[in-house]
Amino acid sequence: MEGELAMPEHSAVHLSEIVAGATSNSHPHSLQRLVGSRPPTERGSSRWSNLYLAYKTLGVVFGGLVTSPLYVYPSMNLKSPTENDYLGIYSIMFWTLTLIGVVKYAYIALKADDHGEGGTFALYSLLCRHVNIGILSSKRNDSNPGISHSCQYEGPQKPSRLARFFEGSVVARRVLLFIAMLGMCMLIGDGILTPAISVLSAMDGLRAPFPSVSKSLVEGLSAIVLIVLFLLQKYGTSRVSFLFSPIMGTWTLTTPMVGIYGIIQHYPSIFKALSPHYIIHFFLRNGKEGWLLLGGTVLCITGSEAMFADLGHFNQRSIQMAFLFTIYPSLVLTYAGQTAYLIKHPNDHDDGFYKFVPTTVYWPMFIIATLAAIVASQSLISATFSVIKQSVVLDYFPRVKVVHTSPNKEGEVYSPEVNYILMVLCVAVILIFGDGKDIGNAFGVVVSLVMLITTILLTLVMVMIWRKPLLLVGLYFVVFFTMEGAYVSAVFTKIPEGGWIPFAISFILALIMFGWFYGRQRKIEYEMTHKIDLETLSMLLSDPGIQRVPGMCFFYSNIQDGLTPILGHYIKNMRSMHKITVFTTLRYLLVPKVAPNERIVIKKLGLKGVYGCLIQYGYADSLNLEGDDLVSQVTDSLQALIENHSGLLPSVPLSIEEELLELETAKLTGIVHIRGKARFYIGKNSTLFDKAMLAFYEVLHNNCRSALPALGIPLPQRIEVGMLYEA
User: Fold this and answer.
1) How many CB atoms lie within 10 A of CB 55?
2) Burial zone of 715 (CB within 10 Å; 0-12 exposed, 13-18 middle, 19+ buried)
3) pLDDT in tens, 694-715
4) Which of 426, 488, 483 is nearest to 225 (CA)?
5) Distance of CA 285 to the CA centre of its chain
6) How far apart are the first and last CA of the chain?
7) CATH topology of domain 86-138+160-491
8) pTM over 0.90
9) Which of 58, 377, 595, 657 could form a disulfide with 195 if both were Cys (CB 3.0 to 4.6 A apart)?
10) Domain boundaries, the chain
């Protein structure tokens, strides 16, 4: 079953009158649930189920990480390296994999999921829900006290000092939002560069046995492979992972076997490099050159962010099992074998992977490497779909089509527009920047910045939500911020040599996100200022010139504590309103899922034939209502509301039977769905910044998907009411 997800016009706010009537009761939750444990059904899943999921993660989550030996050594600018240099480099890679891979991601980051969803935006939404630090997010939560959510923080503790600082500083909240946006943009950049460098590095193995094969031919073949890969994405993560997991399982087992052979043949004492003193001596000997080499060694941990970002596709336990028992030991042994070979052949580092493969198994390893590189591309493509979906449903990114490719796993999504844009950019990177070192430089910038941003957001989660001891949090922050900060400082020197690529991509994406976010904020500010309250609506309807026409109308109104100003514009110009009018709000909450009994909340608004309807979805839910199904569910809820409220309102002198009859008659007469389509009128008094940003927002808004098609509403029933908002 497939469902399409598109955002409503204003997802951030809702009718307080509706929410005030909600009857859901909050209930306490354990600390274990707060810190990101799985739902009860998942906790109770069998060991075999987790093993099967762990097997499937090989084809989706770990492709980028486990194929990094293809390009780590070739990306380094080594100059006459010695035995001690290689031992120092291996020691750096081992401790990077151990501290960042095992400690940070496998044991800490995976516990900071937002009930199944991972990535930097999930961390940001987690912070916004638990602490009043969001730009719009705090308004969303505070305005809805009557609805309980399964993952809402109910702790009795007062906000921490750090939380109070963020709550009181608009600048700090905006900086935090920018950091989250930058993390998302960099992860998308990772989704572009991982396929490019992985496939290109694998295909480059053709040039050793066939010197006549040109570099251009390798680039062309790599581009064809990537195009085929992107065309397969529409079949969904489950089908792709089922196809690719055997390939990655083979790669994960064969590379450490070759590594063990290399250790025995070339340098059996390689594991003495696990002692950290080799790192210290490496930097003492090489100084600045050693620091610059960090730009290459950081690639050994590339793809680790996919462990966290792809969490919505699998679960915490399966990812941990796969990483700790297969991926981590495989990488440790493979890098050990590569390093052992290079110690005896120090000048072969430019082709550090294929040179260390024994001649007798060269071609089988080439085939496996090429297939594994394709799988490597999959991990970040899936992660990109996940973060784009999160951004769309949280209204920080223009609406794009997001298709749920699995009826059982809501985290499995696919976006056609994003998929084809990624495909074009990946092919362009290969054809324009074919040099593996240039792409490696760009890759290092992405990898290190995403890791650093995750560290910062995780630190805030530890302090403001988990309330861990400051000494423990400080130890975590100092270790990982220092380590990743050193990597960031090293890769920044590579910006002129290809490192500018992810910055250009991230800048364009961040501009789109900020322009969309700014325009949405300005719209909401205008609507809050010019909103229609129930008293004003009552006065409008009391005008004898206003007719109540037959039929049922769903009027989409999405602002806080009132109704959209488009309603007043409509009534004054059309001089009419339907006898049964349901002011409908589609509201996305900063939670992954909303309980079924909280999906639709209906309330009488105190005027004859006027009701409020709140339809709530989390960002891991699919909008699976169709037009007729939506009408049926809402009218059923209305009937139940009317039957259960025998007390008559003074302003609605109808019996229950009469009210039910009016509802049924209106439904049979005809149904219409009305939504506003507001545009900004940019006057002469507007600032240059407003003119530029709002004009950019209008371009984005006019070219993104509409909200209502997601509900399957028939075209003849749709009416759009245009209105100009003065900027």
Assistant:
1) 19
2) exposed
3) 888 888 888 877 766 666 778 8
4) 426
5) 42
6) 43
7) Amino acid/polyamine transporter I (1.20.1740)
8) no
9) 377
10) 86-138+160-491, 531-726
